[in-house]
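Researcher: Structure for this, please.
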Amino acid sequence: MFKKVLVANRGEIAVRVIRALREMGITSVAIYSKADEKALHTELADESICIGPAKGLDSYANPIAVLSAAHVMGCDAIHPGYGFLSERSDFVKMCEEVGIKFIGPSSDIINLMGNKQNARSTMQAAGIPITPGSDGLVHTLEEAQAIAEEIGFPLMIKAADGGGGKGMRRVESIDQFDYLFEQAQNETQAIYGNKDLYIERIIYPARHIEVQILADQYGNVIHLGERDCSLQRNNQKVIEFTPAQSLSQAARKSICKTAVQAAAAIGYTNAGTIEFLLDENENFYFMEMNTRLQVEHPVTEMITGIDIVKQQINIAANKPLDMTQERVKFNGVAIECRLNAENPRMQFRPSSGYINRLILPSGGLGLRVESAVYPQYLLPPFYDSMIAKVIVHQPTREQAFELMDRALYEVVVEGLDTNIELLDDLIGSESVFNDRIHTKWLEESFMPDWQLELEDGARDELEEA
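Model: Predicted structure, token format:
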């Protein structure tokens, strides 16, 4: 087993990994930028080291700085969390070359699955269903136009690298195509240093269903069930559920079996997530693979009782999986809400500054909050806007919604703008509870009226003042 692990991240995920390491008796080392000197993860870790200035590219996403810190501190492994360097194959290759274990898959696998077009081609060769689209990368506008006319509209232009909605454009008709294709190319070049794009037909309306898998170095691959991540805004997940309520047992069995098949086909190891789009007839199509820990992994942990972070560490230490598929049991319903520092009244502009007063929900069975903020904490403007994850687990869907409603009611964050109103209203929505949603439901059906209500409420407040 590892003696000392560097946690190559910040915020709530760094805290999450540090806690797992402490429970396993492994020394943890936190890295931090100059903006994070007083961050919670630096206080909780056994040791810590500053790796650079506030900007992420110069600190947390700087491979040389992170690897140098691991060497100086005498670490024998690195846990990347999610984001930053977690899916950088070049960083993993550097770790492999200097003999520091990367807690995740190999650089070859990350390189294969990190490029979405490569992943599509690999999955297609393995017999995994993929959405209709371009057979390879698309480099010129003329080539893209021909493919678009062949597969039809609406369609999606996507960057081959990265995620989180970057380099992605939805195109409704040929009239929009030229402008949006060039816009996607420019954004992809600016972020990833290339113009590698591919095109795929949009499945609409669709559900976003992902399957959590674990795989060891001995050929054992299991799944930990599915998550429904269809509640999204700007291709960013807002609330996640497990199990997916509307999924039939036959479809659930098939999609989970396909995820295991996909992971086995590429010789995958460690934790990963296979993401699918599901149409109205329960046909599903491979979308992408995340070769890392997911933000929403706690909901899976809640219904299975399996600590995914500890499993990652054990697998990286060459231990075989200590369970079979038959031993994985699924119990109850779990929900995760992402509490973000952003202003819904101003196009969800990120918010930063001092947290003057903070109350996060607590008490009761089945409630879990993961965060790295505290009262009087200065939330820096340089990083992701998520400040906490609220997770509930209950025997039934109705009880889970009731507990989440109570938990969100208790949230108080003074000094910052947050999306708490949106989360509260979504949990109170009849359409959400009855699972009448899809990946565009939030933007197309919910947000327009909700935004008008916000504006009306703001006007009323001004008049009263």
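Researcher: Any notable elements?
Model: The mean pLDDT is 94. The domain at 4-103 is CATH 3.40.50.20 (Rossmann fold).
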